[in-house]
């Protein structure tokens, strides 16, 4: 056989081998339509390792929990979440709503790392966007108050920290007491920056960009603005007295750092969608915050809110010694069997507290000594801080303390279901306005 004949034979064999790939049954990469197929562990077992299957199973478990325990209660109109302690479940607090949005967004970030997420990353992301925009719209209704507050820093002109979850208006029977919370605006701005960085579109117009800039201006003077703190109680004595809180100042400092030069339109923005911070105001907040630590305020020796400030989610200080001293003091004075006390002699939600009086008498807090409520959620906060510090022993310690306190459920409770049905019933009847 000649060389030309052997070459033709090789060319024919190559052509024949490739002929099977021509036509509708040829092999190809998975397309967009393939990702819409329902995921099944049995179908994916051949294509994915056991570790990947376990990851998907865990994510699906967390997804069902988020749907059952958080998203089932999201308002259809405003996107806000009601406070479970409110008897009518019509009041939503800003700080609590931001943490709900963080939980949803965190799971969304996990789903973004995998293929074939069945649209869950988009669903969770839009639920978080709806909550964050709901808070923004509620505040924009009070823009006149914000303009006055920037000049006077008065409690009566402060942005409200709780709203009606049905229509986004101010709570009907709420006075100005407890509304001034610098920490609420700060943690909102900090979370807003993180979510926009993760490619979520939350800010839609120039008016919203300008309003966010005004929010930044309102917290720049946190170092000299007494507020009610994250617990809405003011001073330790609960006598309707505001004071400087290290947690509020620290959260404001972290929010200013995250917002300085930040583009609210993300990668699609221009120079007119960038917000800025007064550097001198940031330095004053930093100096005041470092001076107050490890103390919370003039009346509070320490406070569990500092765990949010020196650790997750704000990480407001980077000096390791000061962070450890603050956390050690919180553990020594506030940790109990069932969680952390918010602060010493905190009488809220105890049986000894009067249900009729909003404020205490001058010497009334003495009876709450060693009778404070303990909050298990701070065990979870300490476990999360351990994850960020790569301290596995701390994670194991606080998860072991938290697990016996968890109430394990498989379905939405009857009360929750009935309250959600009543909410949708009010929507059908058009009774959104009080």
UniProtKB/TrEMBL annotation:
Domain of life from the UniProt record: Eukaryota
All residue ranges annotated as the GH15-like domain in the record: 59-401
Gene Ontology cellular component list: phosphorylase kinase complex; plasma membrane
This protein's pathway: Glycan biosynthesis; glycogen metabolism
Family statement drawn from the similarity comment of this UniProt entry: Belongs to the phosphorylase b kinase regulatory chain family.
General function of this protein: Phosphorylase b kinase catalyzes the phosphorylation of serine in certain substrates, including troponin I.
Protein name: Phosphorylase b kinase regulatory subunit
